[in-house]
Amino acid sequence: MSEDSTTCGRVPSSEYVELAVEVFSLLADATRVRIVLALREADELPVNRLAAIVERPATAVSQHLAKLRMARMVSTRQHGNQVFYKLANEHASRLVVDGIYQAEHALHDVPRHHHPVDGAAPTRHDTRA
Q1: Angle made by CA atoms 17, 3, 39, in degrees to the nearest 5
Q2: What is the DSSP annotation of 10-52?
Q3: pLDDT digit string (tens) for 84-103?
């Protein structure tokens, strides 16, 4: 039986619900979402490379990574005097990707992730006045 199927149909304990709220709160930051997406694509990156990808100062990215690390969403590996970051597991990535997919549903009649690979989804035409 998979972990997902063991929680399906029942409400998890308050402890897990409260921790889930903390995870969502931690991911309610555009820089952190971009960091998770960058690590999803690259597997492992140093702070300076992450900073360049997310277009933020390395000091700011380092602070965000510290919070993600405290939440055990990222882990580190040191090579010489350079620290490499990677996602601790696939769950943060899945949360962020599902959030992006939900945003696509809010903006498009046919979200891009439901579209064939060849193009972007048409924009929803809002008929409200």
Answers
A1: 75
A2: SPPPHHHHHHHHHHHHHT-SHHHHHHHHHHHHHSEEEHHHHHH
A3: 999 999 999 999 999 988 88
Half-sphere exposure (Cβ direction) of 11: Cα atoms closer than 13 Å: 5
Rounded Cα distance between 80 and 95, Å, is: 32
Calculate the alpha carbon distances from 28 to 7, 22, 25, 96, 127 in Å.
24, 10, 5, 10, 30
Instruction: Provide the 3-class DSSP secondary structure of residue 112.
Output: helix
Look up residue 115 and give its two tokens: 């579209």
Q: Rounded to the nearest 5°, which phi and psi values hold at 125?
A: -95, 115
